[in-house]
Amino acid sequence: MALIKINNQSLTNVTALPTGVAGISFARLTYELASGSSGGDATSGSYLTYPINTENSDPDNIVTLSSNQFTLGAGDYVIRYNVGFYKCGTASLLLRDITNSANVSHSIGCYVTTSTSSTVTVTGSHFANISSSTVYELQYQVGNGKTGNGLGLPQSITGENERWGEVVIEK
């Protein structure tokens, strides 16, 4: 017996979703390196590719990750993204549709001081209704470059990779 809530109404003894209620698929992509590693240089100037190098979860195969870009097939998606920056001044993110050469979403802009040891997390989201396979790329821009660890400080947790940014996709 499964308990499911739809529109705050409990359904019991459910063995399948009711007619008209579709399942939801999720995927999670991250930027991660081995424990103890720094995130790397945050370079100031124009928007640059943010590294996304790991597919952590995608049980329904809704996304393909390659060379810091991800591909989604036709469908409706919610794409959420967040990235931490260290001592970079202003910081923002941009979700770029590579296939159609278009900027489709811009994060909430943030500021983190460059004079003290401070980190800021920048977030954004996008609803995409796409009719054919589309390639996306997360891009970043910072006001002040930070060599070595501007894209993330190591947490050095034993047995855990360092993770600084993520893209979560819901279909």
Structure description:
The protein has 171 residues and is mainly beta. Helix content is 0%, strand content 54%. It has no helices and 14 strands. It has strands at residues 2-6, 9-14, 26-33, 48-49, 54-57, 63-66, 69-72, 75-86, 89-97, 102-106, 110-112, 119-130, 134-142, 162-170. Strands 4, 6, 7, 9, 10, 11 and 13 form a seven-stranded antiparallel beta sheet that branches. A five-stranded antiparallel beta sheet has the order 5-3-14-8-12, with no helix packed on it. The chain is globular and about 50 Å long. The protein starts with a strand and ends with a strand. The mean pLDDT is 88.
Please outline the helices and strands:
Elements: E1 2-6, E2 9-14, E3 26-33, E4 48-49, E5 54-57, E6 63-66, E7 69-72, E8 75-86, E9 89-97, E10 102-106, E11 110-112, E12 119-130, E13 134-142, E14 162-170
Antiparallel strand pairs: 1-2, 3-5, 3-14, 4-13, 6-7, 7-13, 8-12, 8-14, 9-10, 9-11, 9-13
